[in-house]
Amino acid sequence: MTTLAGNDDAWPERLAAYRAQLDCRFPQIGEVFEASLLDALSVLSPAGVGAYLDTGRFLGGMGRGVEPVLAFLQEWPSIARILGEEALPAINDTLQLIWKSPNGKAISPFLQTLAAVARRLPERAQMQRYLELTLELMERTSSSIHGIHKTFASPGLPDFFAQAPTLLGSLAIGGLRNWVDYGIRNYANHPERQRAYFRLQLADSRAVFQRERQGTLLVDQQRPLDLYLRALWGDSAQLVPYATAVDPAADSPRTSPALPALPYYDATGIRLPDVLDDAHGISGVDRYRASLAHIAGHRRWSTPLFADNFSPMQRMAIESFEDSRIETLILRRYPGLRRIFLALHPRPVEGACRPATESCLRHRLTMLSRALLDPEHGYQDASLREFVARFAQTMAQGEASSEEIATLALAYVARTRRQSDQLANVHFTDTVIGYRDDNRHLWRFHELSDDEEMFEQPPTTATPEVDRLPPRHYPEWDYQSQSYRPDWVSVYESLHPSGEAATIDRLLEKHTALARRLKRLLDLLRPQDRVRIRYQEDGSELDLDIAIRSLIDFKSGATPDPRINLSHRTNGRNLAVLLLLDLSESLADKVSVGDGEQTVLELSQEAVSLLAWSIEQLGDPLAIAGFHSDTRHDVRYFHLKGYSERWGDPVKGRLAAMQAGYSTRMGAAMRHAAHYLAAQPAEKKLMLILTDGRPSDVDVQDERLLIEDARKAVGELDQQRIFSYCISLDRRADEYVSDIFGGRYAVIDRVDRLPERLPELFMALTR
Amino acid sequence: MSKPEQFKVHDEPFYQPQRNEVALYEAAYAARLPVMVKGPTGCGKSRFIEYMAWKLGKPLITVACNEDMTASDLVGRYLLEANGTRWLDGPLTTAARIGAICYLDEVVEARQDTTVVIHPLTDHRRTLPLDKKGELIHAHPDFQLVISYNPGYQSLMKDLKQSTKQRFTAFEFDYPEAALEATILVSESGIDATIAAQLVSIGATARRLKGHGLDEGISTRLLVYAATLIKGGVSAVDACRMALVRPITDDRDIRDTLDHAIDATFA
Ligand SMILES: Nc1ncnc2c1ncn2[C@@H]1O[C@H](COP(=O)(O)OP(=O)(O)OP(=O)(O)O)[C@@H](O)[C@H]1O
Ligand SMILES: [Mg+2]
């Protein structure tokens, strides 16, 4: 195209003609018109330039001031370069529709970010979806009075446009759509919160944003990573996600001076990016593992040094050497990790940094670090090679120490120092080692502030066992907005503490008569699944028919069949059961039993014991868990019996230690329990919920909310083909329990009969 | 009679003592006290008894107990023959007659009524009544009863009654500590010490997950399997997956973690 238009003699004339076609008198336009036009001429066809100026004229005459037209004139050429000028009509249509609505104010933000959006959505089809999404958002959040006129502008639309590039930085267009949709559904009628939502200022807007992100989310990998840390490193630190704007291993940061936030750890846990994509052939999970290995190594082998003694550059070198020492030790134990470290560790190009104009220390150290990891580094630099050898020597003695390695690092700095190391212009390319932590743990200061005192604690070889695992997050159903609040509830699981198993035995003693009766019932349940296997040479019983036949054969001189016994085989019922106990405060209530009084808790213990005992006899896999809650941030889920545990003293001990407290956030507990039950191989799955009150929690005022959520949870269980059944001890349960469980519940209003009713109910259910 | 010979342990079994259990067992045997060996599966209980039988030069009769086992499986039963019926001693009876060490492996698996038949043999009486046959056997002076059981698998139905437990002295076993376990792998399979140590460290990773989704860690037995496969030419990674991970878990997260540990251990 006419890229040299500016040098053309006829140019001033043509410029004026274009200006006239734009027909727009704002003085500010003059300042940018020529440059923008030149840009446009370089990318657009003559017809395209015509359309460009037409759209500009429309925007200028629309009565919204100069901003929209300015934005368009400047942005369109770059957008056209990405999407092609054929994208204009669709954008024009969108502009028209916004203009006709009361949302004219949103036009400038729309245009201002459109180029950035186009960079994330370089396909016209994707852009089309963005435009449609925009219009839908506008429609659904512009409020109308009496349904006739759309009078009020959408509060969130301009905020949405402003955020769009950021959002698309992490979300695919489908994810963006879901995020927008959630905002509309939940905040259509709260202008202030709607704006906050679209500005990513609300907790749930960030949560939904996280959910829609691509890549491996830390929250999804909590358990595997906990297991990893525990199994390979014997470490049980909490894993805490931090929000990442940029993925540390995405290709760009390697060349960009905008350093990504690195993992780190402090007294409260190990901080990792909330999301990691696969990168350099390494899966997101393995990238997390690489970070955890590195950090676990520090926790095991690093001791803090006094920072005051060193210059910033010396500290940088010490950190780098210490990182290499730690990884050398890690690789001695787990040499297979080298492949992962190598893939993730940048490979700085020798000579890429120019010491004349740049500070090269980072570059030198990263090269050295690479060389210490990669025997095939191929670097020629003499001092690098010398220090690779000296490092090997230091490490040959054993594990060395943070102090020793610091000495080596100082020698290195002294040897390779250059004047230009002081320059502000640091060479960053290929120097970010994203899986390593930021080494803040390595330093202590003579002037101790409160924060740093934490590092005073003995280094981490003896990390205290944190018995509380990090929480699992579950959504909760908000019936008001008919949508889930994602990751709303934190469930902490743990093994229930143990008490005296004998307590349970004593409780059971009272029920010997009942047990005998149950046993008869159980025997009735069993026969169908005891299958006789005849014709056994070895068996538990003589099969008389066959035996006599053999005897006759034998007496008459024929060879008798020696298979004269029979045995039995239990044909599994193919049923797995999970018993979920509500351990909330109300369990401490007393009821009269016979002449005396007992707490509901004790009765539950008896009932559960009898049930567990019964189920054990039937051979159905059974797990028992209890729960209570203290706001959505703290739902506790206790394992009382695991599937593979038999009914015996450890289980009885835990049952004996059961205590009443807190509230009943039932939905979350059911979802968590379902996670275990669903993993059972059995064909039929039964979740029994034993509760004595309505779902409730201290942070929820709306009585319906948790009832509706529990009902939703039942639906989810159905979809997982888990049959749920509620046994309620609340006499007024009829008011709500059928809302939750449909017809699948029983209310036991004579609580004193629970011990017999519970097993009976179970048998009736599984007959 | 050649019977005792038939049950002798002729070749010295390899047994790597963990502590002073050999001496203690000898003391128990000297007093003919019944012995119970407890511990997780595959930690060397059976091997220990086999070794002790060899060391003491006594015959060993081992009975693997199962839930279908009845008292007559232990004591004996009548068999049908041409001229009527013939009595056949069960393994417990045989042991009592010939003076063998009778090892009831996983005795909890047997039904409770089965375990009761051992009571008179385990107290001062040292007798075994054969009700059906109308005979009372006085145990041979060399006879000793040993039972094993794995506390991880208790149940109300199957747990030993106190009256049974209290007839035994007990040894509690656990997986050997790392260096010993590596020695065992080397002796059992002939692999080299480096690989043995690597296998043991993989075993340790799994044992740390006990209670976090695993009921028991990887047993010494499985480590021996893996070592044997490796010795036989299977790649370390495949052998470990096949012998150490797949048998013990269906939990995906755990499987992935252990697989990763294997990949990380064998470069
Ligand atoms: N101390 C040891 N010395 C020699 N070999 C051992 C020792 N401990 C374990 N082993 C090895 O482990 C294998 C399993 O041991 P063993 O069969 O004795 O287990 P167990 O404790 O009886 O298990 P289970 O309870 O499942 O019967 C043995 O075959 C042997 O290879
Ligand atoms: Mg054994």
Describe this structure in words.
The complex is a heterodimer of chains A (767) and B (267). With 767 residues, chain A is an alpha/beta fold. Chain A has four domains: 5-214, no CATH class; 218-444, no CATH class; 493-505 and 573-765, von Willebrand factor, type A domain (Rossmann fold, 3-Layer(aba) Sandwich), CATH 3.40.50.410; 530-571, no CATH class. An eight-stranded mixed beta sheet of chain A has the order 10-11-19-18-15-20-21-22, with helices on both faces. Chain A has a three-stranded mixed beta sheet with strand order 4-6-5, with helices on one face. A three-stranded antiparallel beta sheet of chain A has the order 12-14-13. The relative contact order of chain A is 0.06. Chain B has 267 residues and is of the alpha/beta class. Chain B folds into two domains: 3-172, P-loop containing nucleotide triphosphate hydrolases (Rossmann fold); 178-265. Chain B has helices spanning 3-6, 21-30, 45-56, 71-75, 91-98, 112-116, 119-122, 162-165, 178-189, 193-207, 220-231, 236-245, 252-265, and strands at 35-38, 60-64, 76-81, 84-89, 101-105, 127-130, 135-138, 144-149, 169-172. In chain B, strands 2-5-8-1-9 form a five-stranded parallel beta sheet, sandwiched between helices. A two-stranded antiparallel sheet of chain B has the order 3-4. In chain B, helix 9 (178-189) packs across helix 10 and helix 10 packs antiparallel against helix 13. In chain B, 40% of the residues are buried. The interface between A and B is large, with 42 and 35 residues. The structure holds adenosine-5'-triphosphate and magnesium ion (MG). Adenosine-5'-triphosphate is lined by residues 14-16, 39, 41-47, 105, 150, 176, 184, 188, 220-221, 224 of chain B.
